[in-house]
């Protein structure tokens, strides 16, 4: 059994050299995020991840959360105590407004910390992930009264939050939401009574905290049909008195939890609203604007799921690497024949698998962290144009960070099992748990297809491809510089990146008009287009890293072995993975009509 | 819950039009395999698969096989009875020698039938799969005495067989086998006593039959080190009297079974030999030739695991398609706006996923069946040159059918989950079971890397790439013909196939010399090389299918909707998937050194 270790050197390299922590720390309000403070935070987070969360990961999978007669849920041994420590240590409010008890740190820092939580124990980390989303919704749209009653308790983690979107007939299509919210006739506090059933509610019930704050999509009686008639409500599990103490049990009940492929420790609840007279709910913001609010907070939740992809991929890589260093099997081809046996790390194909895992994980991480820093700049940069530019980059990248990182996490955790050979299929080994846990990430908070729809439509076609092309120009400029670099090690990286950027540009040129005139073919190309973006943007970040590493090597500044590893990893990615860009571009530009050529009967 | 249905129209098309059933039925000894007889067999197999095996698939996953105090194993409800019916119906001996009670049918027919077993219930089908291997070993190398005692009972399925290779220190590397076989001093029947422990023994213990016949690799006291000192022994669970009745319990005991990611109904046993004085075993063939015998039978087992890949992929596709036809969600882009909602089959990305599943499954199937027919020709063709030619093709294809089909089965079952959205992650839906079950197929009977080693070494480099190039010439000739076809529908398929064949040829040109001079880089390229072969060979078979379909359409001969579907599916594969060939070729020819550039410390 291996233990999770935060990849600290790599994380710091990405934060400092690629995401620009120093610049972020100069933004108004982030002055406390000095390199030293951030290093101390990362150190503490790393310890908490390895010492508290990681030891519970396998236990959580084995025991799972269990539904109890009466509607309560029992989380696995140790989880409640770990949550208490997590909240007490202030991890829940890392980026939150200090006015509400948060620490007001940049998203970039939270990105690194969240990666550690997900790497150590994804099922545990989902609870704060969802609470974040609920806090976000309240901060942005809640009344002062709602904020004063609920917000600081949620930021402290004394109460958790949930997001209640899905109903059995309303999954990806939230227009179909049917939960009703009726103004309370017996009260005069502006509250509503909610009736309906929500499914797939992560941590919809738990035994960590005394109260749970549900953010719920529902329709008022006068609401128009479809997406424009959905409002957002806050429904606490227990009513709250004016002094903050808990009052009566509200009429929202967990009627069951799901039996899932992975993340067993995370209870996925079916919640019944109003079976006993109506669940009291408070409107968040204005009526009929619920979906709009939900999308604001969903953006951050989607970004966080992308980080889950990074975390679980890193964990899977570490476990596979530890195994490969230990397991002795066979004679490795091409090595000294007097050595009778070797660890499997000496076998070329095991190296290929591990390097594929490592390179892709580093590419995903760099892209996520760079996007995290852009989120900070989009919020806080003193210059309005710069804010706008960063915001445009963030909007383009969020579906990519979510969609691509989670798809790649499947490949990485798949290889994590494969490196173990037969032992990978045995549950006790632990590699299979990562594979199972990772599987949800391409589904929740919007499937890969939903991310891809967003990417081709709102993020590419709507501005005629302008933002997309400006990012590609940046990639292409880097590629040109590296192709002409005096350092031979950078040249092949630049060359491959140039080809990949050209392939991506051809896809943008196809997507923009296709989205307008033949939207079905554009949608058929959307997921390959998302994967192409991720592939190239990831290669871009690794290439940037290689360029920095080459400079630091030349300056004799730091860990040469590490820097050489960065260059070699970027080159592997460039030569072995980036060639897929042309294949994806061809599938998009030539093959999209053929996706739609079959009639229903021909399937 | 959907039900498995054998894809009969497709299976018959592949058997008749691509694999040449009619020609196979002309081979000496296969005269009974007329189209009508084969159709009747397929019909019966299809019924047995849907009515008997499929209903047990989910039960088997839920209950799993369980180890009982005392060393017995309880299989899930219904499995024992299903096995009895399976054996009684004669399915176990389909291809086996009529002398031993078999039906002497061609491998091509068995290929189709096995696909159905695996599609309906992979965990069940593993038991006959392993028995086949044991029968094969005995038929080829067993003494008359061993054959007369054991063979007909195994062919009838009254007793099952196992293959005992792995020990905890000897997985992919069988040279490390330590189980000892000592000539019995207290008996004078030439028997041995075996001592040691074997792991990962599929159906190493079960409650289907009264006896189990283990084929076991072990070392005699005088054996040389390494692979040249391994012998093959037959060790029955119960000794057998001369009249065929069971005698004393032998000293082989199941000490535990594994808790696995999938195929829960299939007991994976740890077997202890000789803890109570020695397990009586009989030498199969000659001493020290065990590995050689094992490889002969492993070839067929590997081929069967490739068929498992086809079967589980087909099953996953059917389940996803059924769900997509039923599930109503959202408004599909680009369709009539007056229709408020659509089934998800109308969504372009769902069509892309389903078509990716369908096209790849059909490609895998066609390649496997064509290889199955080549096995028959290699055994029975009256012309010695033809036998040799077919044998060479079979040898090249077996690592591809095994390695590529099982890798693609991962992608297909992955998409099978994804089509279901959130429901895919819920175990009750069933899609996740296929995903978990499929996961073992790239590992057992030789991991993908082991197949790829075989492919680059023995199957490509050893003859200087001669057989590989001759197959590529055939592919290329077809591509040329189709590119120039008067039928416009075939032209793009021919064009894409031509590019893919050229990419494959460039990879062969790289692999042959690289294997000689720098074997580590060649090994680093081996899995991409295997995937490239599978991709192109699968596209080749779909292209052949499209060509036949176009001819039959022109002749107005048969189901036009089906034939048009074959052409459209082949075109999708050609335009959307075959472009990956160039990417893989580039990774192989340019990137292989970069796979090996990291030092151990840099991982």
Structure explained in plain terms:
The structure is a homodimer of 603-residue chains. By secondary structure, the first copy, chain A, is α+β, with helices and mostly antiparallel strands. Chain A contains 18 helices and twelve strands. Chain A has helices spanning 8-18, 21-24, 35-63, 79-88, 107-141, 144-156, 290-326, 348-380, 384-419, 431-438, 448-461, 466-483, 491-517, 519-524, 526-554, 560-577, 580-589, 592-595, and strands at residues 66-68, 72-74, 160-164, 180-183, 192-202, 212-218, 231-236, 238-240, 246-249, 252-257, 268-273, 279-284. In chain A, the strands form three sheets. In chain A, strands 3, 4, 5, 6, 7, 10, 11 and 12 form an eight-stranded mixed β-sheet that branches. In chain A, a hairpin with an 8-residue loop joins strand 4 and strand 5. In chain A, helix 7 (290-326) packs across helix 9 and helix 11 (448-461) crosses helix 13 (491-517). The longest helix of chain A is centred in the middle third of the chain and has 37 residues, at 290-326. The first copy, chain A, is globular and about 80 Å long. Chain A starts with 7 loop residues before the first helix and ends in an 8-residue tail after the last helix. The mean pLDDT of chain A is 96. Chains A and B meet through helix 8, helix 9, helix 10, helix 11 and helix 14 of A and helix 8, helix 9, helix 10, helix 11 and helix 14 of B.
Q: Could you write a compact summary of the structure shown?
A:
2 copies of one chain form a homodimer. The first copy, chain A, is of the alpha+beta class and 603 residues long.
